[in-house]
Amino acid sequence: MEPSEPGVPKKRRGCLRGCLLTLLVLIGILLLTGGGLAFLITRTPTVAKKMTPVPVTADAAASFDAKIQEAELLFSESLQQPIRVEITQDEVTARLVQELERRELPIPISHFQVNLKKDMMQISAILKVNGLNVPVVATAEALIEGNEAVVEIKDIQIGSFPVPSFVRDQINDLIKKEAEGLKFELPQGVKSISIEEGMIVLEGF
Questions:
Q1: Nearest to 97 by CA among 119, 134, 123
Q2: What is the enclosing helix (H) or strand (E) of 35?
Q3: I need a labelling partner for 23 at 20 to 30 A (CA). Which of 79, 92, 133, 157 fits?
Q4: Mean pLDDT, to the nearest integer, of 140-169?
Q5: More confident residue, 58 or 38
Q6: How far apart are CA 169 and CA 155, in angstroms?
Q7: Share of the chain above pLDDT 70, in %
C-alpha cells in the first residue's frame, strides 16, 4: 500500500499523476514518429519565452501559508466589511514547487514557474523524458465551485507542439473526476477569486 504524504490528499496526488501520464503518453507518441517532432517538442514554447522569471524561495512559500491563515482568520471573524487578500505569483510558485518536491512523480519536473496575468495564469515546467528536456506550458483559469478554488486548463503546449483539444479535455476530466483533484479549499466567506497582474485576489466579507 502506498504511504500517505503529509498534507497531500491521495486523490490529489493521483490526479496529478494521471495528468502527467497523459502528457507522457502523448510525448512518447511524438518521439516515436521521428526526429522532426522530437526536435519540435524540445523547443521552448513562445508563451514560455515571454513569461517573467519568478524566484523560488522558502520565504515566499512561508508567506503563502501565512496569508492563507490570515485569510481564514479575517473571513471567520465576519466583520461585515469588505476583505481583500492578495497572494503574489512568487508565493504561489514557491508553494506549488514545495508541494511538487514532496510527491513521488512518474517523471521528473524542474523549472516550475507560475505567471499571473489578467484573468489567467500561465504555468510552465520542464519534464525529463527519455533523456530529453521537454518544456511544457499551460494557460489556465481559476474558478470557484462551492467553497473550493478549481484550476481549469484552457491551453497546453509541449515544446512547439500545441496539445490537441481532446487531450486537454481529458486532463480537465481527470481534474473534475477526482474529488480533490486540483481543487483547493477556500476559507468560509470568500465570495470571489480573481487573477490580476502578478497576484491572485480573494475577496469577500
A1: 123
A2: helix 35-41
A3: 92
A4: 76
A5: 58
A6: 10
A7: 69
Burial label for 38, CB within 10 Å (0-12, 13-18, 19+), is: middle
Residue 157 lies in a domain: yes
Cell of 23: 502528457
Does residue 177 fall inside a structural domain? yes
Separation between Cα atoms, residue 43 and residue 86, nearest integer Å? 34
pLDDT at residue 174 tops 70: no
Three-state DSSP state, 42 = coil
pTM, entire model: 0.76
Q: Cβ-count burial of 41 within 10 angstroms (0-12 exposed, 13-18 middle, 19+ buried)?
A: buried
How many structural domains compose the chain?
1
* Position 34 in a domain: yes
DSSP 50: T
Q: Considering the domain boundaries, does residue 114 fall inside one? A: yes
Mean pLDDT calculated for residue range 179-190: 62
Q: Which of 21-30, 110-119, 165-174 has the highest mean pLDDT?
A: 110-119
Domain range enclosing 92: 10-204
